Amino acid sequence: MATTLRANTFLQRLVGAAALDATIYEEVESDPGATAQAMAVVVLSSMAMGIGARGLGGNSSAMALFGVIALVTWAALALLMFEIGTRLLPGRQTRSNPYELLRTLGFAATPGFAAVLASVPEVTVTVLVGTWLWMMAAMVVAVRQALDYDHTSRAIAVVLLGAALALTIALGLGVLFGPTVS
Questions:
Q1: What is the pLDDT of residue 172?
Q2: Are 101 and 147 a contacting pair, CB within 8 Å?
Q3: Is the pTM for the entire model greater than 0.85?
Q4: Do the beta carbons of residue 115 and residue 131 sit within 8 Å?
Q5: CA 80 to CA 107: how far, in whole Å?
Q6: Which whole-number Å values give the CA distances from 116 to 17, 46, 48, 101, 107, in the listed order?
Q7: What is the percent of the chain where pLDDT is above 90?
Q8: How large is the average pLDDT for residues 76-83?
Protein backbone atom coordinates (compact mmCIF):
# COMPACT_ATOMS: atom_id res chain seq x y z
CA MET A 1 0.00 0.00 0.00
CA ALA A 2 1.53 3.29 -1.12
CA THR A 3 1.36 6.33 1.07
CA THR A 4 0.86 9.76 -0.31
CA LEU A 5 2.14 12.83 1.39
CA ARG A 6 -0.01 15.91 1.55
CA ALA A 7 1.68 19.23 1.01
CA ASN A 8 1.78 21.57 3.96
CA THR A 9 -0.62 24.50 4.05
CA PHE A 10 0.62 28.00 3.35
CA LEU A 11 0.64 28.79 7.08
CA GLN A 12 2.60 25.60 7.86
CA ARG A 13 5.10 26.56 5.18
CA LEU A 14 5.47 30.04 6.70
CA VAL A 15 6.10 28.63 10.16
CA GLY A 16 8.55 26.05 8.81
CA ALA A 17 10.40 28.62 6.70
CA ALA A 18 10.73 30.94 9.70
CA ALA A 19 11.97 27.99 11.79
CA LEU A 20 14.63 27.30 9.10
CA ASP A 21 13.15 23.83 8.48
CA ALA A 22 15.03 22.34 5.53
CA THR A 23 12.15 19.98 4.67
CA ILE A 24 9.84 22.94 4.09
CA TYR A 25 12.39 24.51 1.75
CA GLU A 26 12.67 21.16 -0.10
CA GLU A 27 8.88 21.02 -0.43
CA VAL A 28 8.69 24.58 -1.74
CA GLU A 29 11.58 23.93 -4.14
CA SER A 30 9.77 21.02 -5.77
CA ASP A 31 6.30 22.62 -5.88
CA PRO A 32 5.84 24.86 -8.94
CA GLY A 33 2.51 25.96 -7.47
CA ALA A 34 4.39 27.59 -4.57
CA THR A 35 5.70 30.41 -6.77
CA ALA A 36 2.62 32.55 -6.13
CA GLN A 37 2.92 31.83 -2.41
CA ALA A 38 6.59 32.86 -2.48
CA MET A 39 5.62 36.09 -4.22
CA ALA A 40 3.01 36.78 -1.53
CA VAL A 41 5.65 36.21 1.16
CA VAL A 42 7.98 38.72 -0.48
CA VAL A 43 5.25 41.37 -0.78
CA LEU A 44 3.97 40.83 2.77
CA SER A 45 7.49 40.88 4.17
CA SER A 46 8.28 44.12 2.35
CA MET A 47 5.08 45.65 3.72
CA ALA A 48 6.14 44.62 7.25
CA MET A 49 9.53 46.22 6.59
CA GLY A 50 7.79 49.39 5.43
CA ILE A 51 5.69 49.50 8.58
CA GLY A 52 8.76 48.81 10.72
CA ALA A 53 10.74 51.56 8.98
CA ARG A 54 8.25 54.04 10.41
CA GLY A 55 10.14 53.55 13.67
CA LEU A 56 13.07 55.28 11.98
CA GLY A 57 10.88 58.27 11.20
CA GLY A 58 9.70 57.12 7.78
CA ASN A 59 6.15 57.34 6.48
CA SER A 60 3.89 54.66 5.07
CA SER A 61 3.29 56.39 1.73
CA ALA A 62 6.09 54.34 0.18
CA MET A 63 4.41 50.98 0.86
CA ALA A 64 3.59 50.28 -2.80
CA LEU A 65 7.11 51.24 -3.80
CA PHE A 66 8.51 48.87 -1.14
CA GLY A 67 6.47 46.04 -2.69
CA VAL A 68 7.63 46.70 -6.24
CA ILE A 69 11.26 47.08 -5.19
CA ALA A 70 11.03 43.87 -3.14
CA LEU A 71 9.66 41.88 -6.10
CA VAL A 72 12.33 43.15 -8.48
CA THR A 73 15.07 42.57 -5.90
CA TRP A 74 13.76 39.06 -5.17
CA ALA A 75 13.84 38.08 -8.84
CA ALA A 76 17.26 39.66 -9.44
CA LEU A 77 18.76 38.07 -6.33
CA ALA A 78 17.38 34.66 -7.28
CA LEU A 79 18.93 34.91 -10.74
CA LEU A 80 22.22 36.20 -9.35
CA MET A 81 22.45 33.44 -6.74
CA PHE A 82 21.43 30.86 -9.35
CA GLU A 83 24.32 31.91 -11.57
CA ILE A 84 26.79 31.99 -8.67
CA GLY A 85 25.58 28.70 -7.25
CA THR A 86 25.37 26.71 -10.48
CA ARG A 87 28.26 28.19 -12.48
CA LEU A 88 30.85 29.47 -9.99
CA LEU A 89 30.26 27.26 -6.94
CA PRO A 90 28.35 24.14 -7.99
CA GLY A 91 28.33 21.14 -5.67
CA ARG A 92 28.59 17.51 -6.75
CA GLN A 93 24.80 17.17 -6.90
CA THR A 94 23.79 20.68 -7.94
CA ARG A 95 20.87 20.42 -10.33
CA SER A 96 18.58 23.40 -10.19
CA ASN A 97 16.72 26.01 -12.15
CA PRO A 98 16.02 29.68 -11.38
CA TYR A 99 12.41 28.95 -10.42
CA GLU A 100 13.45 26.63 -7.60
CA LEU A 101 15.68 29.33 -6.18
CA LEU A 102 12.95 31.93 -6.72
CA ARG A 103 10.53 29.89 -4.60
CA THR A 104 12.94 29.03 -1.80
CA LEU A 105 14.31 32.57 -1.56
CA GLY A 106 10.76 33.91 -1.52
CA PHE A 107 9.98 31.83 1.54
CA ALA A 108 13.30 32.91 3.08
CA ALA A 109 11.71 36.37 3.37
CA THR A 110 9.27 35.00 5.98
CA PRO A 111 11.32 36.28 8.96
CA GLY A 112 10.78 39.76 7.53
CA PHE A 113 7.24 39.64 8.93
CA ALA A 114 8.79 40.34 12.35
CA ALA A 115 10.00 43.73 11.07
CA VAL A 116 6.56 45.15 11.78
CA LEU A 117 7.65 45.20 15.43
CA ALA A 118 10.33 47.74 14.49
CA SER A 119 7.62 50.41 14.34
CA VAL A 120 8.11 50.73 18.10
CA PRO A 121 10.86 53.41 18.25
CA GLU A 122 12.62 51.97 21.32
CA VAL A 123 13.40 48.68 19.55
CA THR A 124 13.54 49.72 15.88
CA VAL A 125 17.23 49.14 15.19
CA THR A 126 17.41 45.95 17.25
CA VAL A 127 14.39 44.45 15.50
CA LEU A 128 15.55 45.44 12.01
CA VAL A 129 19.07 44.06 12.54
CA GLY A 130 17.70 40.87 14.11
CA THR A 131 15.21 40.43 11.28
CA TRP A 132 17.92 40.96 8.68
CA LEU A 133 20.19 38.35 10.31
CA TRP A 134 17.29 35.89 10.54
CA MET A 135 16.49 36.43 6.85
CA MET A 136 20.15 35.87 5.92
CA ALA A 137 20.11 32.56 7.83
CA ALA A 138 16.90 31.60 6.01
CA MET A 139 18.53 32.45 2.67
CA VAL A 140 21.41 30.09 3.50
CA VAL A 141 18.96 27.25 4.13
CA ALA A 142 17.01 28.16 0.97
CA VAL A 143 20.14 28.18 -1.19
CA ARG A 144 21.47 24.96 0.33
CA GLN A 145 18.22 23.14 -0.41
CA ALA A 146 17.57 24.63 -3.87
CA LEU A 147 21.11 23.97 -5.07
CA ASP A 148 21.34 20.54 -3.40
CA TYR A 149 24.57 21.33 -1.57
CA ASP A 150 26.17 18.80 0.75
CA HIS A 151 27.71 21.49 2.94
CA THR A 152 26.26 24.66 4.41
CA SER A 153 29.56 26.49 3.88
CA ARG A 154 29.01 26.56 0.11
CA ALA A 155 25.51 28.02 0.61
CA ILE A 156 26.95 30.66 2.96
CA ALA A 157 29.49 31.60 0.28
CA VAL A 158 26.76 31.93 -2.37
CA VAL A 159 24.60 34.10 -0.11
CA LEU A 160 27.47 36.36 0.96
CA LEU A 161 28.81 36.73 -2.57
CA GLY A 162 25.32 37.34 -3.95
CA ALA A 163 24.56 39.93 -1.27
CA ALA A 164 27.90 41.68 -1.83
CA LEU A 165 27.36 41.83 -5.60
CA ALA A 166 23.76 43.01 -5.19
CA LEU A 167 24.87 45.74 -2.78
CA THR A 168 27.62 46.83 -5.16
CA ILE A 169 25.18 47.01 -8.06
CA ALA A 170 22.62 48.93 -5.95
CA LEU A 171 25.25 51.43 -4.79
CA GLY A 172 26.49 51.88 -8.36
CA LEU A 173 22.96 52.53 -9.60
CA GLY A 174 22.39 54.91 -6.71
CA VAL A 175 25.49 56.90 -7.62
CA LEU A 176 24.52 57.00 -11.30
CA PHE A 177 20.83 57.77 -10.93
CA GLY A 178 20.47 59.13 -7.41
CA PRO A 179 20.02 62.76 -6.44
CA THR A 180 23.01 65.05 -6.52
CA VAL A 181 24.26 66.11 -3.11
CA SER A 182 25.99 69.46 -3.00
A1: 83
A2: yes
A3: yes
A4: yes
A5: 17
A6: 18, 10, 5, 26, 17
A7: 65
A8: 94
